[in-house]
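Archive entry: two folds, one per protein. Generate the first.
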Amino acid sequence: MDRRFLTYTILIFLFLILYQALFMKPQPKKKLIKEKAIQTDTVKVKSAKTVEVKNPVVVKSPYFEAHFSKKGGLLVSYTLKRYHDQEGNPVELIPEGYGMFDFETDSLKGSELEFQANRDTFVISDTFTLVLKAVVNDSFTVFKEFRFNPSIYMLDYHLRIDGYRGKVLYRFDAGLKGTEKNKKEDIKNFKFIYYKDRLHRINLGKLKKSQFRAIAEDFAWFGIRTKFFTFDVIPGGNIYRVYAEAEGERISFAALSKDGPHPLKVYFGPIDYFLLKDIGYDLASIYEFGPPVINIFSKIILYSFRFLHRYIPNYGWVIVLFSLLMKIVFWPFTRYSLRSMRKMQELQPKMKQLQKLYKNDPQRLNKEMMELYRQYKVNPFSGCLVLILQLPIFWALYQVLRSTIDLRGAQFILWIKDLSSPDPYYILPILMGVASLGQALTQPAQDKNARMMALFMPIFITIIFLKFPSGIVLYWFVYNLVTILEQYMIKKSTAEGR
């Protein structure tokens, strides 16, 4: 048992080291200036002012509620009705005092214009176009058109300026508001993202040090994200420069069109893999499945969870059932592993004799030990088999639990209010530790040192699991409970000679 736990610990740390070495290498500094033409470009992305909102124009749908300021025609509030904050209110995605969809031209700044709509409140259930109109000096008119698709968080944005075909800077300087209770964890996920052959991410810290500037002709889309929500612009080929920078906890970005305003598509909503996959444009790449070695397992788990949730409305019980299914899948390997461990235990007296006999001849000792294993048909590494097979599943499950918005705020029972967050009272990790201890005590008799190690390792693992999502702790707790039953059954069948 001591070897098993020790091996388990070593494997976890080796996995973490390899994970960081292979997939979390410090990326070389990106060349923020792509071409000489950009070197003299001094576009200011962030707005120095805050937005005052009086009598906004409101668009309400079953999925969201959007508020537009009349001054500037900016989106100043955007709440999602199917997702909630810590107080149980619809989650707000725009920081207070800021707005989206500002613009600048050579002679106009969008925030200085007064826009009007034909009324102040619109309740929609189908595709709808909001038209905001501003008259400039009685000479020409500016229109902002927002065409909403209320069920998939998509909208078409068309800025129209009568007779103008010059440069237009689209500014999205509000950033996204943090939404999670664990603010530190949430901020880690604040990133500027863009898709160019693959998904690229630039985190908050890098943007604070240097503005991002790029030629955007090959960008499929670009935007910003938090842990669970995203705002992305799909340009349709008319944007030729993109900028992003950060200040405090706010990431702002802008896009420059050189030949007048053009329609843009915008996705503003949850990072829901299945929804993004249906929309297309490779937006589904925003969902983080983990590195390639974990990716396939994460997808299998995500699809399995979605399938099981059709029949089991509580994700906690989905995880319990998934843990039982994994036990069934690994049963042949577990059975083989545990029986091999018991054979190894039976061989301990003979191994100790060999160690005494050849204590001064390591090569001969190794040879005799291998002959002993061969004679009794024992694989000394069989105890690691299930652990090795479990590691990809374990880390893929961790990735799914921390990334899937369906599990955000998903309750289980009693005090477990969010399976994607740690247990606030540490009850579940302690129960898992007790189960691990029970698993250790069901092992064959060990010497004093081995017994001490067996008792120490559950405490060590419990401490590690204190900050893990409660969903993965639940998975491991159930897995350990069933393992105790397995060990009892195997011990009984072995005693009966089966």
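Generate the second and append.
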Amino acid sequence: MIRRDEVYKIGILNKPHGVRGEVAFTFTDDIFDRVEADYLICLMDGILVPFFLEEYRFRSDSTALVKFEGVNTAEQARRFTGVEVYFPIHHADKADEDQLTWSYFVGFRMEDTAHGHLGEVTDVDTSTINTLFVVDRGHGQELLVPAQEAFITGIDRTRRVITVSLPEGLLDMDNALADNDDGNNDN
């Protein structure tokens, strides 16, 4: 059985394309094209299930058409609509560091050289011009850390730890913002 800590999310399947069983795939990480992997992992009814790739072709830098083995009709492909797609970490671990995307680090523990343990990276926010790591600090607190190579001092892929050296005051600023979000402002 495939466990959540063995994979990381790389996209979502959309509607069927054509009548041969192809599915449109919107991805945040094209790792499946950069390393040797014959399959993608889909979250089907709460279970992570591998599906072998018969073929795929890119439509843009964030979408592809995917054909899974044994899926030969639009009707069969329809069951994949809205399904989350994951990639095995052990395959991604074989990639060179310059081939990895920020999404790979979801599930890593983040440590700062000055402040120690910060929490676990739970998401990567790409909704703004600056990509951010979303770090779960525990007790319902999140920390937003800029995903910039300049702040990263080390990556231990075996222990799944990313070490950063954050600029002075960044943690204080993030904590002040969190306090305001909690309704502690007097406006």
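Annotation attached to the second fold: The chain has a mean pLDDT of 87. The CA atoms of residues 107 and 152 lie 16 Å apart.
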